[in-house]
Each structure stands twice: as C-alpha cells, then as structure tokens.
Amino acid sequence: MVSTANIPRMLKQYKEDAVPVLLREFGYQNSMEVPTISKISVNIGLGEAVTSSGVIESASEDLMAITGQRPFVRRARESISNFKLREGMPIGLAVTLRRNRMWEFYDRLVNSSMPRIRDFRGCSDRAFDGRGNYSLGISEQLIFPELNFEDVDRVRGLQVNFVTSAKTDEEGRRLLALLGMPFQRR
Q1: What is the torsional sign of CA 97, 103, 108, 110?
Q2: Superfamily of domain 28-178
Q3: Among 5, 133, 142, 169, which one is least packed by beta carbons within 10 Å?
Q4: What is d(CA 71, CA 122) in angstroms, rounded to the nearest whole number?
Q5: How large is the average pLDDT for residues 41-70?
Q6: pTM of the shown model
C-alpha cells in the first residue's frame, strides 16, 4: 500500500482533478498520454557579477531559499570585450527542479507567491514556445515568503520555465490552468 502522506498537494491535485479533465477534453486513450510538468528550471542572470564580487554568493543564497536546492553557477561561454566579459566568468545561476520538489515549488509559486505581486492581473498566456512549454518572468524575488526583506542585498528578477510533456501550446495552457496558474482573462 502506498502512503499518501508524502505526496505533494499539487501532484495529488494533478492526479485527481487535472488528469480526468484532460482525458475528456483532448480525447486521450490512456492516462499515460495526459501531459504533465516534466521539470521546472529557475534562472537568475547576474551581469553585475562581472564588476562586483559577492553577488554570486548572495544570489545563490536567495535562490537556495526559494527553491530548496543548491543552484548551479552558469559561466560565460565566450569573451565579449564590450561587456568586459571573459570566457569562464560567472554570469548567472540556474536550478532544475524535478519530482516532489518541483510540485512543492509550483504550489508555493501559484498559491502563496503570485498573490503577493503588487497590481497583479494574471500571467500572460502567450509565453508558450509552440511545444507546450511556458516561460514566466518575475521582476523581483521578494514575492517569495521564504526570503526576508532585510536579508536581501539587491532586488533581482528571475525566470521560471515550465517544461511539460504537452505536444501543443493549447494542451500546455490547459494543463497549467487546471493546476491553478492565474492566466489573464481576455
């Protein structure tokens, strides 16, 4: 018998609410055909890391608090003299979330962080890539309740990418909408 105590709330909502609706709406033959979220990647670009030290460490602590996972330091692939950038310099941070951490992050993002955005009118439903994957830009990391305002040295934006197994944007949009993504109303 499988214990339901360790199953994230969003995964349970996906299995109980979203799968039956998607099966019915898109006419899938099998529940294994129903699209799901494969992974969520969270990225922060740190162009200021070229000129100031300590930026990587503070941004890394913020991203670790937000996602619960240690970020990977992204380095420059080539040198660009106009930006005083050399190959191998740190220029960003990235985290890839899968399985339970992914579902828990999605739950916190949609249910506790997005409602904290000032003048929030919903997410654009046009940021799909043609294959059912969705990109979301967040202008400041302070919307996450895991961060303390006094501990943050600088307001930074971050990008969140939702990679789904959907084949079309329509399927991906419907999947995320059933999981509570607050898309704009037209």
Answers
A1: positive
A2: Ribosomal protein L5 (3.30.1440.10)
A3: 5
A4: 28
A5: 79
A6: 0.83
